[in-house]
Amino acid sequence: MSKKNQADQRGFVYSTDPNFSYESESQEAETLPNAAQRLSIRLDTKQRAGKAVTLVEGFVGTVADAEELGKKLKTHCGTGGSVKDQIMLVQGDHREKLRMHLTKLGYKVK
User: Fold this and answer.
1) Between the N and C ends of the chain, which has fewer C-beta atoms within 10 Å?
2) For residue 3, is pLDDT > 80?
């Protein structure tokens, strides 16, 4: 598809106002210190063909820091996973292992 026919990433397609300019609000939140973060860990199996996935939610910070923490968690558990929308997904049931590791890193875990 050519760029001409694609919708704008922010949702705008066309404006009749010749002076229109979109003001971007996409500033990333600053990463809070580990002690100020309150993360929650839960197990999810919905819409995953019965496979268990451990979710770590509640991270406040930049996308790069979230991906870095997700990589540390996946490496610690020795499994795969991903980071989507500030939520770390770790394949398998690793709730206790992640809780202990996050507490050691200084995060508050719920």
Assistant:
1) N
2) no
Residue 90 above 60 pLDDT? yes
pTM of the model: 0.72
Distance CA 20, CA 56 (A): 40
Q: Are strands 53-57 and 38-44 parallel, antiparallel or unpaired?
A: antiparallel
What token pair was written down for 74?
A: 């996946």
Q: Where are the beta strands (DSSP E) in the chain?
A: 38-44, 53-57, 81-84, 87-91, 108-109
- Confirm if 58 and 89 have CB atoms less than 8 A apart: no
Instruction: Taking each helix axis as running N to C, give the angle between helix 95-105 and helix 63-77, from 0 to 180 degrees, rounded to the nearest 10.
Output: 120
CATH of domain 28-109: 3.30.780.10
Q: Alpha-carbon Rg of the chain, whole angstroms?
A: 19
- Sheet of 108-109, strand order: 81-84, 87-91, 53-57, 38-44, 108-109
